Amino acid sequence: MQSFCKNNRRYLYAAVGFVLLLFLGLIYSWSVFIGPLEADFGWERSQTSSIFTISILFFWLGNVASGFTSERLSPRATILIAAACAVAGFAASSFTTSLPWIYVSYGVLCGFAVGMGSNGVLSCVLGWFPGRQGIASGALMMGIGLGSLVLGPVVTSLLGSVGWRGAFLALAVAFGALMVVGALILRAPERQSNMVETTLKDSRRTTEQNAPARALERAESETREFTAPEMLRTRAFWTFMLWAVLIGTGGLALISNAVPAAQDVLLGSMDEAAALMTATMAMGSISAFNGFGRLASGFLWDRKGCRFVTVLISSVYAVSMAACAFGAATGTFAAVVAGFIALGTAYGASIATTSAMIGSVFGQRHYGMNYACALANMVLAACIGPTISGAVHASTGSYFAAYAVFFALAVASAVVALWMRVPHRAAKQKNAPLSPAKAARSDAGASR
Questions:
Q1: Which three-class secondary structure state does DSSP give residue 131?
Q2: Are 275 and 266 in contact (CB under 8 A)?
Q3: Where is this region: Disordered (predicted)?
């Protein structure tokens, strides 16, 4: 009975976490605001792209802050702090009068709020699913991926009815109410140390019955919980980071300019208002398949492991850039949409893979801080990708050359993925240990 209640409770927390992450995923809908802001203030594409870059930088800093607050306070306190920052950021954005203003209001405050809130939710909910990090993180982070699809058209409608200032105010109210309610519902599980001890006891019990002492040592090694400094000293972490930067560069570049990129292909065939709505729907395809990619990669991670998943993501990413380049060169909107779909799948999968790797390879106890360190890849990608795409569009009036650059990065990421050596469960030794069952078989074979 107690186990039944615990299972019901954790699925309730997962559902609440999904809804919170759905709203937090609105940070990827920035491109719907580009047109109205450029029209009102006369800003250039490189300037509006830099707002998104700043938001990603502070998204990462919010994750870092969440790593501290989740361990020293609680995930609930973390989410409440994030709610306050989100309300302040969206409300202040509605009063924008200059570029530096929105750099701070949207870029700093909203980016920080989304990073802190999403890490707080993940730190809380994933603790209820030990041993299923891949599928649990994928399902949760699908919420972030679907944010633009579900809420992007709502924001677009608000832009048409109340303008961008009214839309920002509405988002301030919605974020504040939802995040406060969600924070009051969510509750962290018992200390991760207790969960680790339970896992270790189970491993000991199984191993003592089926294998000699050497297998027991390997089982203990598999329960290693890495601190951030320990994780940063591993080659596996830095190899994965390089791969993630290569993937994220093109992903964030296109996500931050999805609506304008689609409009470039559409404007010759329809009026501006229809092109904006159609381009927003195309952006929604990125969001929809972003969510699908996160869930699918979590499923595959648990079954196929790191190399299979990362190589597959790199391949899909390359296909997406090739399709977008073809669409930009020929004016074929269907090719652009196909590229958006593939990109959403690849980028979403890369984010969920990052979460799964940190939890399953480096342990759950220090997940908040370790995950924040891993998300530093987004800072580099956000600085490189949107800068390339904005500069290329400003100089050529097209994104074609940018797609070609990102295709080359996709090929490079596939090479890195093939070279990567990441054990499914890290250990103290240089080489990954076998699982208790495999260790028992290995030792039994050796004794024979």
A1: coil
A2: yes
A3: 196-222
Residue 285, domain CATH: 1.20.1250.20
Which residues, other chains included, contact 238 with Cβ-Cβ below 8 Å and sequence gap of 6+? none
Give dist(CA 166, CA 277) in Å, integer: 19
Cα–Cα distance list, 61 to 100, 119, 383 (Å): 19, 11, 14
Helix 376-396 / helix 400-419 crossing angle, nearest 10 deg: 150
Q: Give the Cβ contact number of residue 197 at 10 Å.
A: 12
Per-residue pLDDT of 90-139, as tens digits, reads 999 999 999 999 999 999 999 999 999 998 898 888 878 876 666 777 77
Listed residue (423, 437, 348, 385) closest to 143, CA to CA:
348
356 contacts: CB under 8 Å, gap ≥ 6: 133, 134, 137, 138, 297, 298, 301, 302
Q: Is residue 33 part of a domain?
A: yes
- Determine, yes or no, domain membership for 336: yes
Sorted by sequence, the CB contacts under 8 Å of residue 341 that are 6+ apart come out as 285, 286, 288, 289, 320
- DSSP count for the chain of H helices, then E strands: 19, 0
Distance CA 176, CA 108 (A): 17
Structure tokens at 66: 């969440």
Using CA atoms, how far apart are residues 168 and 166, in angstroms rounded to an integer?
Answer: 5
Alpha-carbon span 84 to 255, nearest angstrom? 26
Structure tokens at 396: 């050529």
Structural domain range at position 338: 9-190+224-419
Q: Taking Cα atoms as reference points, which of 187, 172, 231 lies closest to residue 17?
A: 187
**Max CA separation in the chain (angstroms):** 79
* Predicted confidence band of residue 32 (pLDDT cuts 50, 70, 90): confident
How many Å apart are CA 314 and CA 95, to the nearest integer? 41
Domain count, the chain: 1
Give the alpha-carbon dihedral of 407, 408, 411, 415, to 10 degrees: -150
Decide if 365 is inside a domain.
yes
Count the Cβ atoms, other than its own, within 10 Å of residue 300. 21
User: pTM for the full model?
Assistant: 0.67
State the pLDDT confidence band at 196, using cuts at 50, 70 and 90. very low
Backbone angles phi, psi at 42, to 5 degrees: 70, 25
